Amino acid sequence: VGFKLILLSLADAMDATSVLKQNQGGFSFDNVKRNAMLEKTGMKMPGTMKTGTTIVGLIYKDGVVLAADTRATEGSIVCDKNCEKIHYISQNIYCCGAGTSADTENTTNLIASQLELMRLTTGCQPRVKSAMTRLKQRLFGYQGHVSAALVLGGIDCTGTYLYTVYPHGSVDNLPYATMGSGSLAAMAMFESEYKDDMTEEEAIELCDRAIQSGVFNDLGSGSNVDVCVISKTEGVKYKRNIHDRQLNKRKYNRRAGYNFPKGSTEWISETRELFKTAIEVSPMES
Question: What SS3 state is found at 138?
Fold first, then answer.
């Protein structure tokens, strides 16, 4: 009986091991060959959607400044004019995110929760390098399939740090950095006007001008500017929508309006039947 129980327990353990091997998590590449075959037959595979953002950061005399625009796009559609792109990591660390909003939000939230558990365990504030290491290891594990390009800034007991973390997991440690589709225009401002030991006001103004450069030269960036200042003496100051107006608001409005003649938009008969049968209209509750 004892020998049979040992065999059964071994069989159960092997079954559990096989289950774990089959469900390792992460991305599955089982359909790569199938997709390649379908492409050869002429089927067009869905492509990636272009994302648009301008995020920047720079180190000044007493800390670090992070800034971002507030436009969220879905291809060529502006889906949110007041999107929050500066994410909380810990009390002394913040992070700007570019790329797919769901990826940046979930990645930064995950690392923020891990660092909070570390702080509760050790009784010490987490270091910026700890956040950078966890972010790059997380992104490297998915080989760029998690679309999160990050500008990480913060202050700890060892100094002031600014990092860029790319979707594939590579990292740069720089005095000033830009990322996103408007990064080249923003970098032009930094390259021409950045200097060491800037004051807080000068740093905020330069970051603002860099974001505006991205806004006016990149269709994927726009609306307004958010700024996060992490200071050694005054702590964190997070300012949303520092301008009282939309930066790239349409300047010309046609006086006569836009009146399109009937029939300008193609109307498919199947769609008409769908509206008649499948869509129900109910009054809103007051």
Answer: helix
Q: What is the dihedral of CA 180, 183, 185, 187, to 10 degrees?
A: 170
Query: Is 53 considered catalytic here?
Result: yes
Q: Which residues pair with 95 in a beta bridge?
A: 87, 152
CA distance 175 to 25: 37
- Tell me, what's the pLDDT at 286? 47
- Give the residue, 13 or 164, on which the prediction is more confident: 164
Q: What is the largest CA-CA distance in the chain?
A: 93
- pLDDT > 90? residue 21: no
pTM: 0.76
Helix intervals (H) in the chain: 2-22, 32-40, 101-122, 128-141, 183-193, 200-217, 269-277
DSSP conformation letters of 68-128: EE--EEETTEEEESS---EEEEETTEEEEEEE-HHHHHHHHHHHHHHHHHHHHHHSSPPPH
b/e per residue, 89-113, with b = 16+ CB within 10 A? bbbbbbbbbbbbbebbeebbeebbe
Among candidate residues 48, 51, 53, 199, the one labeled active-site is: 53
3-state secondary structure of 188: helix
**Are the beta carbons of 162 and 151 closer than 8 angstroms?**
yes
CA 92, 96, 102, 107 torsion-angle sign: negative
Q: Give the three-state DSSP class for 231.
A: strand
Helix (H) or strand (E) holding 56, with range, is strand 55-60
